Amino acid sequence: MTTDYRKLPSRVLYVLSGVTVLVFALFWLVGFNRPYDEDGNFNAPLFTDVLLVLMLLLTAGAIGVAAWSAIWSGKVNKGGERVVNNIPVRKIGLAVAAGTALMLLLTFLLASSAPMRINGLNYTDTFWLKASGMFVSTSLAMIFVAIAAVVYGATKYIRKP
C-alpha cells in the first residue's frame, strides 16, 4: 500500500478541525454552568482544562512547524538570491519575517501597561499587560494589511477581455 503524501495536509486539517469542534462543543455543552467554588457568581466550565491544553498544544505545534519550515527553507534556498517566475521569493520572505518581528517589537513597546480590573481582580503585571496588548495590536494591524492587500489585488489587476 502506497501513501499519497499530497493528501496529508488536508487530512491533518480535517483531524484538527474535528478535534477543535469536539473540544469546543464539549466546553460549551457539557458542564458549562457549574458554579465556581470560591465565588458562585462565576462559572467554572468542566472542560476548561481540556480546552487550555488543546490551545497550548496547537500553539506549540504551530511554533514547531514554523521553526521546522524556516530551517528547511533556509537549507533548500541557501544559495544566493532565490527567484521563482521572476518573483524574488527570498526577499519577500525575509521582508515578511523582518516586518512581523519589527511590528511585534513596536507594538510591545507602545502597548499600555496600565493596570486592569477584570472580574473584580487587579492585573498589574507590566510584562503580561504589554504582551497581551502587543498580540492584540499586531493581530489587528495584520488583519488590516491583509484586507488592504486583497482590495489592492482585486482592483489593481483587472483583466480586460
List keywords for this structure.
161 residues; mainly alpha; two-stranded antiparallel ribbon; two-stranded antiparallel sheet; 4 strands; extended
Description:
The protein is built from 4 helices and 4 strands; from the N terminus they run H-H-E-E-H-E-E-H. It has 161 residues and is mainly α. Strands 1-2 form a two-stranded antiparallel ribbon. It has a two-stranded antiparallel ribbon with strand order 3-4.
Q: Using the CA coordinates, give the radius of gyration.
A: 22 Å
Shape: extended
Largest sheet strand order: 1-2
Structural class: mainly alpha
- Put simply, the count of helices is 4
Order of helices and strands: HHEEHEEH
Number of strands: 4
Q: What value does the average pLDDT take? A: 87
Largest sheet: 2 strands, antiparallel
User: Which percent range describes the beta-strand content?
Assistant: 5-15%
Low-confidence stretches: none
- Percent helix, as a range, is 55-70%
End-to-end C-alpha gap: 48 Å
What's the layout of helices and strands?
Layout: H1 8-29, H2 48-76, E1 83-84, E2 87-88, H3 89-110, E3 116-118, E4 121-123, H4 126-156
Antiparallel strand pairs: 1-2, 3-4
Helix pairs in contact: 1-2, 3-4
Short description:
The chain is mainly alpha-helical and 161 residues long. It has helices at 8-29, 48-76, 89-110, 126-156; strands at residues 83-84, 87-88, 116-118, 121-123. α1 (8-29) runs antiparallel to α2 and α3 (89-110) crosses α4 (126-156).
